Amino acid sequence: MKKKISLLMCLVLIFSAFTGCDINFNGITPTTEGSTTAAVEAAVTEKASTAQAATAATATITMTTTTTTTAATTTTTTATKPTTTKKTTTKAPTTMPTTKVPEKIEKPDTDRIKDDDKVIALTFDDGPSKYTARLLDILEENGAHATFFVLGNRAKNNSELLKRMLDEGHEIGSHTWDHTSFAKLSYNSALENMNKATNAIKKASGKKPVLVRPPYGAMSDSLKYAATMQGQAIITWSVDPRDWDTKNPDTVYNKIMSNVSDGDIILCHDIHKSTVDAMERVIPDLLDEGYTLVTVSELLTYERDELTAGKVYSKRKN
Ligand SMILES: [Zn+2]
User: How do residues 80-115 score in pLDDT, each as one tens digit?
Assistant: First the structure.
């Protein structure tokens, strides 16, 4: 009996030397056939052959090795995954990429401004909305024109309204995809957001916008970069009646009428009923005061040859 045990132990040790595995006679889990020692003892007790006992030991060793390998693989995967993916997607360049020369934006082909005209560009952001059609009616009744800075994510389902705007001589600019502030966006995110909006507006209206108004008027290098890449001039404003804040037609009317002068760009929002209500009086009264209401591109290019993509404009002469 002792001879048999010694022989079996020798076999196991030789096997260990050949495979390079560490045999732990105590540390193998019971579910995998028990410990090697137990396997050996069982083999001896049941008078199993040396070969059978060796096979049992081998099976235990193999399972241990596999478990170790799997654990090692899992550890490697979880340790390396976050660092590699995060580094490549969030890293933004520290200086503005110069991959494109700012392009010139052609003048509009309309000729609605006469030499002595006082001009104003009414602009409406954040739409279109359920009030936009009524605003278009008011503009049409008065022979006035305006610029709509629409959100890309609202363009898709408002194709008819957008086409009507262009048919009736208004201008459509981009107000980005989803009104995100561009103040802290990376170059890649800014370009992606703006490109998505440009494509949605072009698809819904049939024309690519050449103007962009940044949400909140927030400026950044990434905004200028993305606008340059998109071939869009950046448009802010010179009169802000804060219509989104007061939501009172009389206040909006008074703030516009008391602050407006030749060459102004007025900031309004066609998502508020109160703003459209105010326009019932603002538009005819501005006309009575001798202003011609034109689009932003018309107003800005009247005394310029063309606009430059990525450059900021806030009124007729700036
Ligand atoms: Zn806005």
Answer: 344 444 444 444 455 666 667 777 887 887 678 887
Is residue 229 within 8 A of residue 174, CB to CB? The reply is no
Inter-residue contact 195 to 174 (CB < 8 Å)? no
Give Cα separations from 186 to 89, 237, 290 (angstroms). 11, 25, 45
Dig out the tokens for 77 from the structure: 């995967």
Give, in order, the Cα–Cα distances in Å from 141 to each of 108, 136, 213, 280, 284: 23, 9, 27, 10, 9
- The rounded Å distance from CA 129 to ligand 1 centre is 13
Residue in the structure block whose two tokens are 């170790």: 68
pLDDT in tens, 166-219: 999 999 999 999 999 999 999 999 999 999 999 999 999 999 999 999 999 999
Annotated catalytic, 269?
Answer: yes
Backbone angles phi, psi at 14, to 5 degrees: -65, -45
Is position 264 annotated as part of the catalytic site? no
Under a CB-based contact definition with an 8 Å cutoff, are residues 266 and 296 in contact?
no
**Which position among 126, 269, 272, 277 bears the catalytic label?**
269
